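Collaborator request, handled under Task 6.
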Amino acid sequence: MLQFKTGAERSGYKTNVIATNLSALRQFLSYLQERGLTLGTVRLANVTGFLRTELKRFRKRYGRLPKDAGSWRSHYTGPIHRLLRTVHPSWPPPKSPSTAREQFHREILEGYGRWLTETCGLSKATLNKNSRVVRLLLLWLKERADRESLPLLSIAAIDEYLVWRLPGLRRATRYGECQCLRSFLRYLLAANLIRRDLSPAVSGPILYKCDEIPRAFTEQQIKVLLNFTRRDRSAKGLRDYAILLILATYGLRAGEVVGLRLEDVEWRKDRLRVRRSKTGEESFLPLVPPVGEALLNYLKHGRPKTDFRQVFLRVRAPLVPFSSVTSLNAIILARLQRAGIEVKGRHGAHAFRFARAMSLLRASVPLKCIGDVLGHHSAASTQVYLRLGTDDLRAISLEAPGKESYAGLAGQKRIATE
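Structure tokens returned to the collaborator:
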């Protein structure tokens, strides 16, 4: 209990919240002691049994059920799960399969995961993405995905699934889903779970290189967003302003901002070390005064006192680093909405990245220098951003000749040949 209290204090939980959590934990530990259980032997069923007992006690005492069942439940499960994670790091354990089909699906997903990472050498991010697609397919197939029925899987069934799944999705998303599906079908064949290779029958959209013009924030939108956020002097406002200014100044990827550590801000050398999320390499960018000032304000007046080395942390307990880049995109969206800025299309960190590339292009910065700022390995990666210059191309484009112009050209050609 002392270890839990110390950890809660370090995570920034308020005193009254810690007291409430400790009270709930004392009840839970008393329940375990009465049944001869320890934290090391606790199972999910024991937590469920405790909640059932406490619910009966609540009803007997007040003559009714809790008004907000979810809030009442989390009053216990929140501290219980945090306590059990000190003994079982992966707590809560995954739900055990309740049917033979669910058990079969779990075996398939585990085997597919090993095949992707160990045989194909793909990343955990790819595994997570593909696994979501596979789970949806297996759920949709229902009885056709049983141990006995899966070997009989047909092209017609795959076509039915695609007709159900693909409408309404962006072309790039449809392309990605089809790629995942082909990969899974190849695994099923390799694992002898289907009788023939169905992957060539998966027909999806063609994704052409440089097919779409990237979405970028305009200079005015960024200016309004930064000015609006800068007026928020709360701890959250100081953090969000520093994040947005870094994105607008350097065009970093979301993962590169989330991964910034305190030692990456080299104050004496006036530079910022960036660990590139795609290549894994390090690069150094000049620490421009506005960014340095924003970071200093956040570190002095907004960042909580913790042992974490990441620069940007949550502002509400638990005071921990961001778990993923999704948190950063949520911050951007929230600030856009509060500033009253309407953006069509993508509005995450990459919209800042494209905007920065556009400003460098308009400043006639060489492509190689732009690639260095953005952390690109090859010029081909940087050339993608040239598509952003459509407005500049339109400004110098020639007007297409109309009907009269064609007639004039034809007359000139006839005179020239006479």
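The cover message to the collaborator said: "The first strand starts at residue 265 and ends at 266. The mean pLDDT is 86. Please let us know whether this matches your experimental observations."
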